[in-house]
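Try it yourself: sequence plus nicotinamide-adenine-dinucleotide, in.
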Amino acid sequence: MNISSLKLDSSNTVLVTGGAGFIGSNLCESLLSNGNTVICLDNFATGKRENIAGFASNNNFTLIEGDIRDLNTCKKACSNVDYVLHQAALGSVPRSINDPITSNDVNVSGFLNMLVGARDANVKRFVYAASSSTYGDSTNMPKVEEIIGKPLSPYAITKYVNELYADIFSNTYGLETIGLRYFNVFGRKQDPNGAYAAVIPKFVMQLMSHESPTINGDGSFSRDFTYIDNVIQMNIRAIASNNKDAINTVYNVAYGERTDLKQLVELLKKYLSEFDSKIKNVETIYGPQRTGDVPHSLASISKAKKLLGYNPEYNIESGLKEAISWYWKNLK
Ligand code: NAD
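Structure, out:
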């Protein structure tokens, strides 16, 4: 994504943790294309070398292979950086249900290490990946930042604790923070494989090989699926903003529309059929509902629009078209 119109000074150095992951590697790429110096801290737990291969030899790029569970690694990574975009975490609700200890170590202790590293290095701002899972069992729709419910999974707890810690670091130490509650992000480089793969890349890969995708439940659960370029835009706006009212708070990062899983599969079949007409006839399987999944998720993006000037460029259709052509070209 071309971020030049977002007025981020290219002389700034940005640390992207989790920079070899789906969202992080896309952030690194955009920042490098803007001329910024980028440091990526990643332990490759779920990140991939191929995600950074396209820019690994860029003179403005440095990879630190390390773990955010190690405080010294975080301190070293933060030294001499202007901004932190903290993406490193173990994602996935089911993963956190299977192994809450590791999710907590990485997502909470690792997060705290990064805050301490950023504070001690006097970074200008710490922007971090929060999550829509923080809305938990709240039935309020659309989700507004101020009204949250009870968390429904260990993962959701870790992401909520991040917000609490960030708030304390803003108030106690004066560290500028912004939390971005991502809503089901999708797009190029998102991992389609493994037990914890997200629904869109998983279904795309299955449909490309004429395998039936399995919907958990009856397909009525809905999500505010958000294309990666909208997420990049929000991260850059969060570090570039000079609006003092916009900091030390959290924002929904979404498109602001919801799509249920049945509709999602239909859209995927429609756009994939443009590459292979047999895909429209692939049957869908319905399986049991998963524990910890919230039924519906729809964001209000008013706060992001008002305070950060957010203007999402891609809706689900245009985002899916982009994502599908990337998967077809790179992974078919
Ligand atoms: P991802 O798994 O592709 O990326 C996470 C990256 O963090 C990986 O490169 C991984 O190797 C790295 N990492 C994990 N543990 C680490 C550790 N101990 N030390 C250093 N690096 C470590 O996931 P993603 O989808 O790109 O998610 C990025 C962030 O956004 C995460 O914080 C996630 O919780 C959050 N988020 C994502 C979504 C989504 O829809 N993808 C939604 C809400 C929140």
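One thing you can check immediately is this: Residues 11-186+226-256+294-313 form a domain with the Rossmann fold fold (CATH 3.40.50.720).
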